[in-house]
Input
Amino acid sequence: MVLNKKTLTTGEEGRSLIQPSLRVLDLLSSLCILPVFLDEPQLLARQVFDGVTMASSTKVVTNTITTITERLDTLRVHHNETTITIIDDIKRHLSTINDISCQSHIHTHEWITDVMDLLIDLWKLLTNSTSLHPKQGTLATSFFSSLFSSTPRGLVLHLEQINKRLEPLAADSTKFSLKGRTIPKARHNDPEFQGRIEDRNVMIQKILTCTKVEGVVSVAAIVGMQGMGKTALAKFVCDDPTVRVNFEAVIQVDTGIHGEFYADSVKKTMIQQLDPEKDDLGDAIRGRRFLLLLDDLRSENREEWLKLYEMLKKAATATSRGGGVLVTTRNYHVASLVDVYAWRLHRLRKEDSWSLFSNLVGGNSSNQVYQKMEKKCKGVPLALVRMARILKSKPETELKQYQLEKQFMQEMKSLYFNDLPTLHQKQCFAYLSLLFPTHFIYSDGFNPIHFFSVKAETLIQLWTAEGFLGHVDLNSPQHPQPEDLGLHCIQEFTRSSILVLDNSELMTYKMDNELIWELSRFVASKDRFCFSVNNRVEAVKETVRRVALSSSLNVTHGIPKFLIDSNKALHTLLFPMPYSYDWSSRIPYEVKLSWSACHELFRAFKCLRVLNLTDLGMKTLPNSIGELKSLRYLDLSRNNMEKLPKSIGKLKHLQTLILSHCHQLRKLPNELQHLVNLRHLVMDDCLRLKQLPLALKKLTSLLTLSHFKVSTRNNNNSKSKHILGFQELANLKNLSGKLEISHLEQLKLKKSEQGLSYLKEKQHLKHLALKWNHDDNDNNDHNENDETSLGHLEPHVNLQGLKIVGYRGAEFSPWLLSLENLVTFSLYNCSRCKYLPPLDRFPKLKSLRLKRLDSLEYINTNTDQNKLSLEFLQDLSISDCPALKSWWKGVTEGTVAIFASLSNLEIQYCPKLECMPLYPNLNGKLMLEGSSMKPLSDTIKNSSSNMSSSPPLYNVKRLTITNVEGKEESPLPENWLESFICVHYLCISGKMQRMRGFTHLTSLSTMCITKCRGDDLPDNNQWQGLKNLRRLEIQEVDKLKTFPEGVKHLTSLTKLSILSCPELISLGEGIGELKSLQLLYIRDCNKLGSLPKELSEVKSLQELSVMDCRLLLPRCQRETGDDWPHIMHIGRIRLAGASEIYE
Output
């Protein structure tokens, strides 16, 4: 059937369909030149004709917005700031509309029609104003090299008009999305929700913490990728009887929008649901304790979240009842914003996954094909649902495994891949499967315990080398560089949980969902990617362009013949990267890739663009490296070569050269000056590399020079003409990211050189580390020299992170006061520093770390202890400052100043520090080690008397108290632990006389008790409150003879470790009550003579480890040991003595 306007107007549905259907047809007609985003436009139009008008219209809107957004991204790259601002506004409005258009039940025909009209106008504007034809090359290079024509003033005016028309439509969509509702009662027999028992228990406990104290609003967040069951879990939590009993009002608001501002709308929705006749939220609550479910929160606007939280807190305080907020989100940025310890949803347990799948497919679950297909879903609930629908739609005669797998992956592609807004994001996603290992390791069948992580800079450098992020244009400052696009891509991946931040300090990311990795591989396989898993691979197709070798592939004696013979046009070859940035995967001096094998590799693959040769133990790099004329990325880290061949200078296109941890490397060749396109030179921990060649000053494109080592030959007084001097370093003005300058004690500068600043013009530098490497026996002559050197190292005011190590000056340079954009500030081993620069000059400071400041007496020269300007400080760490007495000069007590935003506090080995600002609002970690407890006592006492709502420290999640004792004149109040109602990790070491109140720690999940006396342990009654404790470790408790009987109350305990308790003779009978125990670990308990017979009743026990227990080891031997009948049911038993290990 040919669909046209005539056939539409004569359809049976009558006039009510004519106008919407014509708009769909017009839109389809206008999209006929697009890349295929609408897979079957004729079929879709026929659906409109047949009467499925609203569903089809919304699908057209969704697909069109995706295409337009991609076109806008490309347009954005090439225009000025004004145009970019307008484009960003349009994209934001389109994103908001897109989310709501998918929910046909909450918007109107009129609204969707207006949206379609606007999209037609916008698409015509874009197609008429650009020179990019959609049928141009699909490679990244052709995509990004195709430029839009110049932006005339008329186009800007049209875009402004479009933006004005979009604003009210987006505003209307926000109103649609925030139609709140009370949560319908969950169905506990829901076939699409199974398991999650631990997840439910944890979230219920987190929510119920607010019920212990009047006026408190607790926040708990669930984070995970789409399809993990966040919303279903949240509804089951809200429907739990214990939750319903404690909350009189339970309200849900769907906030699945990208809009930045939502606080007022949420407040209005709550009032409408609670009492529409009221105007004030407190009045609407009327003394009821409320639970608010914010489902699918996406906005990263910190101010908006704080605004909403303050509204809720004010309402809770006014009613003196309190409340809770439960947030679900797929965005890790949002999760960390609202809840520092957000609960991460992982895959379902194997048994829960199979149970859900069996319910979904009905009686066919015994079919072997069904069983294989269930495993393909990797425990993701939504994937199981989709797979079940596929299987139920086909008769058993058509159940071909290959076809089913392909159809399933197409479904997953539509869920997780097709909505990626730009071409470069899709290419970067496909590339992820090359970088992460091909296997995932889980504990207890579902929790990930080990994942390989990759640095953000590595991801961006690889994507750039592949050409996914466009071309470099240093001549146009307004042109986004590949590094900018790459960082934006990583941020987008974390927003959808494709990537997860693993280490915020190293900026490493991991892919912790096996299904997403499988999808990445599936997508990549269509773009000529290949993965070599082991030596059994016989051939690689000639069309393959990228190969990642597995660690199981042996290349000691050469590159596999199948690889060399079959593919001469290979673009990418990645050897396995080590699993950690801190250690090597090979033994020292082991050679995994010989010179001859490496030479053979270079001669075979002359088209390589990306080559990773990390951690192969190479001692010499062949000269044939120079034949790789197309090479963009070269990683030689963790090898043993002493020098690089001169031929490396022939790599004219090289952008990234990584030499980190090459401990034998002594020099770099002058030929590096020919690498005119080099942007990143990474040389961390090259311990024997004393200087850099002078020729590096010609590398004007260099963005990253990770490390510069000062020597007696490269400072300005040196006569050497072949070494990169400090003056030449100053001329590398495009340096960005991080720069570490070490051995500054070798830098000889004169005071007379006033005004000379070597780093001030590096406006793109974000993090700077300045290190003086003095010997311990150095004399005082370095004092003045260090101060002079620091004075000439003034960075640009854009600097965000500053770290000073080993500085022996008594005062800091005045230029520190100009760093108004400083976010992190660290001082290590500055032994003569008595005070810090005024911290109020750093208004954006979020992290302050002070370590080994031997002479530091106070932090602030201001004597007004009631004044504190660090309103954004979130992390504070002070350690090994033996002379530090007070935060303020001359003030030792009586402070009422409060850290407003502090989340984490660590004070270690500062025994004299007894006066500092109070910290009642901590919501992360509190660590006190070898220090006075008076600041803690002051915080609890003063905050309790002055604050009318939240008790002090109630929101702390991790508490460590080791080797500390309060003085008699300032003792902690009795049962002071009662304040820590949200703590889930507790570590206690040393004397515990003051540790009382364990029974109130109902949120506690992990507890470690070390180096205390047996009679200091909690008594039997105090153990009763720890019903959610899952991990318990007792170590070096000298006088413990019998294990506490009260542990029988720990009904949720899964792991018990008993270590180095020399007097322990019995575990007692209570251990038989631990019905959830999975792992029992006993080490170095030489008087422990037997295991209790009650252990045979603990059927949940999966693993038993007995290490260095001379009396116990023979009793646990298989078949012959006296205790064997008590432990024979345990799946894994590990026995280890001084010289033998038994499995």
Summary: The radius of gyration is 32 Å.
